[in-house]
Amino acid sequence: MPASPPTRTLADSVAAGDERALARAATLLEAVTAEGRSLLKALFPLTGKAMIIGVTGPPGAGKSTLVDQLIGACRAQSRSVGVIAVDPSSPYSRGALLGDRIRMQRHHNDNGVFIRSMATRGKLGGLAQATLDLALLLDAAGRSVIFIETVGVGQDEIDIAQLADITVVTLVPGMGDDVQAVKAGIMEIADVFAVNKSDLPGADALVQAIEFMQTLGERAAPGHSAPVCKVKAIDGAGIPELWAAIQKAFDAKGKQDAFTGVWEIRLREHLRETILCDLPSETLSLYASRVARRAEDPYSAVAGLKAEMLASRK
Known about the structure:
By secondary structure, this protein is of the alpha/beta class. The protein has 13 helices and seven strands. The protein folds into three domains: about 1-45, no CATH class; about 50-255, P-loop containing nucleotide triphosphate hydrolases (Rossmann fold), CATH 3.40.50.300; about 280-314, no CATH class. The protein has a seven-stranded parallel beta sheet, with helices on both faces. The two termini are about 15 Å apart.
C-alpha cells in the first residue's frame, strides 16, 4: 500500500535532510506507531549507505565520551553523523533517564550531527525496541555514519551485534578481573576493542588479556582477531588510530559479507519485536494467569496466542 500524502510529505522532508522532520519521524518510530511503520516503508529504498557503528561496554567505561570524540573524527572528514544514545528508562515517565546527549554538547549546534536519546523502556540487551528503525531512518536521511551507544548492562549486552555493521567494545582497566571483563559473549561480538583510560595502571595487562583470549576458539584463525586500540577519550589520545581501525574493519567486512546473514538476524529480531508489540497486554496476561494457575501448560498457551494473533490478522 502506498504511503498516505502526509506520510509521503514527511518522508520527502526527511530525505531532504530537514532536522525537524527527522525529529518528528524519530518520535513516531520510537512510539511504534502505524504511521511510523508506513514512513519507514517509504524511506527504506534510500537506506544501505550508512556505516552503523555500535559502541558497547560496561557502565563507566566512557562510551559517551568516546562517541563524542569519534563524532569529531567523522566531522573532520566532513561526514554527517547520527547518534542514537540508548539510556535506562525512568520508572515514572518511561523516558530516557540519563540523556547521554549532555556529554556531546560541543556538537549541539552542528547541523551535521543529529543526536537522539532513546529509553530502553524495560527492554533487555542494552537497546531500545525501535533502535533499528531509528538507525534506518538516519540512514535514509543521509547520515553517513551512525553511532549506537548502548545502555551498558554488562557481559550479556550483545544485541548490538545484530544491528550494527561494526561493534566497538569499550573496556577500562581497574574494573575487576580483566579476564572476567572479556568473557565469551562480549568477546565474540567485537570487531574492534577500545581500551579506554589507557593511562591507568593495568591498561597493558588488559590489552594482553584481550589479545590472549582471541588466540582461543574461533578467533584463533589468522585474520579473525579484532584489533585492540588504547585510547584516552577524555583528551582524544588514540582516537585517530581507533577511527582508522573501525574504517578498516568495515571495509574488510563489506568485502567478506553480502550482509544477507546480518539481515537474517535483524529480521528474526524484528519479527519477534513486532509480534510482541501487536499482542495486546490483556491477552498475554490472560494466558499467563492460566499458566500460573496450572490450568494450561506453556506450550498450549503459546499455541493459543499464535492462533489468536492469526485470527486477528484475517
